[in-house]
Each structure stands twice: as structure tokens, then as C-alpha cells.
């Protein structure tokens, strides 16, 4: 296959927290900086094998950032065009990278009444697929190849690092990561509990819809790919709490993660405070990406105050 980018194993970090030992799968070590490398590569490889991609194909996809970035790089390696459909919450660094790689970026500017842009992004994807010749939509929200990537790659690598496991924490956006990783983990550790981490204001698990400002976690739809049967519990994390967890991680552990990573660690803190045990549980979690793309948001005190503190008060 021309231009194929091979996946490689990402490392883990082992952290000792008050009340638990935590194994962190560091997906920022992927070639393009995040766990979406897994699903993007797997989807394109399978589509190519089925004859759905040719030299004339234009790939079109809705993304809040990382999936678009992974697709952009992989499509460029394949020599095919990619048109990302994005919204104003796209990180500036990711936007600059996409502009350097893609000849065209489609923006949507009108949110739904809850402040979410996903419905508009999906509608624009549909229009582009209809109008562009040889268009291909990976559909990360429903494509089972995305979950398969995390079963065969992320999940398989994680269980190889574990001798025991009590709890698995995974952030949920499209649902592909938690579905694939949880299935692989539960085959090896059937008594482990799976905790889904969602953003406050996300509709996936029925929370009251509200605007969200940090991309990567949560959704205004219930993704078709999400397997609810593997989930034992859901923790909703407010964005300001996720930001504080990001800063704590980098100060106390030297772990420089993105907003979703902060949400996962905030959820672990909440869970341990609510469910004290007589023994130290072993927890595994996924850190989806690094903090570089969040320097002008999560790690910018002015942005945090203006967007999450003043915004909440207005």
C-alpha cells in the first residue's frame, strides 16, 4: 500500500496517587501526537483494502481536532486529498497545522441551541460528500473499524503492561476508544470495572446539554459505535475541573496532557473520593494527547478566566 504509516507501541507512565496506582497509556507518543492516529490509520487501511480509496479520492470528515490532524497527515502520505470540517473550538495550533497540510478547510459557524457545533459539522460533511466527486466519509462516529483499531492496537498494548486491573477509565467522544479498549481489557480482566469519562454538558449519557469549550470529549449525539454494555459507571467532569487536573498533572507528575487527559484524572479523583476501598486499586487510563495544542486554552490563565470563569458567571 503506497504511503502507509505503520502504528507503533506507545509507552505507559506509572503514577502513585493517594489511594491508587495508575497506569497511563501515553497516546501522545503516536506519530501525529494522539490516540486518533490509531483509528485514522486503521480506517484508511481497511478502506484502501476494500477498494474504497483511490488516487482520485477526497476524504471528508467532521472533527474537533485530533482526528482531522491524523487524517490530514495520513492522507497526505497516501497522496489523496482531505477536507476537514471544523468549528470555532478548534485549537489554534491544530488549525495552523491543518492549514499547512490541507488545501481546503471547511468551517461551520452556527451552533445548535445548546451551543454545540457537531450537528452543523455533520450536515456540512453530507453536503460535501454529495458535491465532491469520489468523496469518502470515514464516519468516525459509526465506523466499526475505529473501535477495531483500539481493540487490536491500544487495548492489546495496554493489557500487555498489566498484571492486574481493577478499574479502567476512558474519556468518551466518538466512543471508539472506550469500546475497543474495554472489550480487549475485559477479555483479560473480566472483573475490572469500566468507567466512562464524559464532559459536563455532553449528551452522550443524558447530561443536561450545555456549551463546551475544550475539544475532544463529549458529544451532542450518542455515537452509534459506542457499546454501552461494557460501561459500568459514568463520571461527568466540568471543564474547569479538567483544567485544574491538567495543571496538577504537569506540576506534580511532569505529565503534560490535553484537556481530555485532565478530565480523566479529575474523574479518577472523584471516583476514589466517592468509593474508598480497603486496598489500593490498580487503575488504567488513556491519555489521548499531549498539552502542546492546548497552550493557548487549557494552559493559558487568561483564556481559562475569560472562557470558563467569567463565561460561567455571565
Automatic annotation (TrEMBL):
<keyword id="KW-0663">Pyridoxal phosphate</keyword>
<keyword id="KW-0808">Transferase</keyword>
<dbReference type="GO" id="GO:0016740">
    <property type="term" value="F:transferase activity"/>
</dbReference>
<dbReference type="Pfam" id="PF00291">
    <property type="entry name" value="PALP"/>
</dbReference>
<dbReference type="InterPro" id="IPR036052">
    <property type="entry name" value="TrpB-like_PALP_sf"/>
</dbReference>
<dbReference type="InterPro" id="IPR001926">
    <property type="entry name" value="TrpB-like_PALP"/>
</dbReference>
<comment type="subunit">
    <text>Homodimer.</text>
</comment>
<dbReference type="GO" id="GO:1901605">
    <property type="term" value="P:alpha-amino acid metabolic process"/>
</dbReference>
<protein>
    <submittedName>
        <fullName>Cysteine synthase A</fullName>
    </submittedName>
</protein>
<feature type="domain" description="Tryptophan synthase beta chain-like PALP">
    <location>
        <begin position="10"/>
        <end position="286"/>
    </location>
</feature>
<dbReference type="InterPro" id="IPR050214">
    <property type="entry name" value="Cys_Synth/Cystath_Beta-Synth"/>
</dbReference>
<dbReference type="InterPro" id="IPR023927">
    <property type="entry name" value="SbnA"/>
</dbReference>
Amino acid at each position: 500500500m503506497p504511503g502507509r504509516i505503520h502504528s507503533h507501541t506507545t509507552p505507559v507512565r506509572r503514577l502513585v496517587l493517594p489511594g491508587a496506582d495508575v497506569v497511563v497509556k501515553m497516546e501522545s507518543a503516536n506519530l501525529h501526537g494522539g490516540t486518533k492516529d490509531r483509528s485514522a490509520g486503521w480506517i484508511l487501511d481497511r478502506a484502501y483494502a476494500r477498494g474504497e480509496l483511490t488516487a482520485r479520492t477526497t476524504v471528508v470528515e467532521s472533527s474537533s481536532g485530533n482526528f482531522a490532524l491524523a487524517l490530514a497527515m495520513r492522507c497526505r502520505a497516501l497522496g489523496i486529498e482531505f477536507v476537514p470540517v471544523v468549528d470555532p473550538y478548534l485549537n489554534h495550533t491544530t488549525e495552523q497545522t491543518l492549514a499547512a497540510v490541507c488545501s481546503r478547510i471547511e468551517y461551520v459557524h452556527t451552533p445548535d441551541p445548546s451551543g454545540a457545533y457537531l450537528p452543523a459539522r455533520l450536515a456540512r460533511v453530507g453536503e460535501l460528500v454529495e458535491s465532491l466527486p469520489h468523496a469518502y466519509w470515514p464516519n468516525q462516529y459509526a465506523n466499526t473499524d475505529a473501535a477495531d483499531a483500539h481493540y487490536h492496537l491500544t487495548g492489546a498494548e495496554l493489557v500487555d503492561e498489566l498484571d492486574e486491573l481493577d478499574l479502567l477509565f476512558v474519556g468518551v467522544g466518538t466512543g471508539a476508544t472506550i469500546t475497543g479498549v474495554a472489550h480487549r481489557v475485559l477479555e483479560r480482566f473480566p472483573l475490572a470495572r469500566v468507567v466512562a469519562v464524559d464532559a459536563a454538558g455532553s449528551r452522550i449519557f443524558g447530561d443536561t446539554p450545555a456549551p463546551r469549550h475544550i475539544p475532544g470529549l463529549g458529544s451532542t449525539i450518542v455515537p452509534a459505535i459506542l457499546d454501552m454494555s461494557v460501561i459500568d459507571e459514568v463520571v461527568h467532569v466540568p471543564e474547569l475541573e479538567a483544567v485544574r487536573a491538567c495543571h496538577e498533572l504537569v506540576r506534580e507528575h511532569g505529565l503534560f496532557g490535553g484537556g481530555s487527559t485532565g478530565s480523566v484524572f479529575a474523574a479518577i479523583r472523584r471516583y476514589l473520593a466517592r468509593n474508598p476501598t480497603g486496598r489500593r486499586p490498580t487503575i488504567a487510563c488513556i491519555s489521548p494527547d499531549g498539552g502542546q495544542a492546548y497552550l493557548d486554552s487549557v494552559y493559558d490563565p487568561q483564556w481559562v478566566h475569560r472562557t470558563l470563569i467569567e463565561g460561567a458567571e455571565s
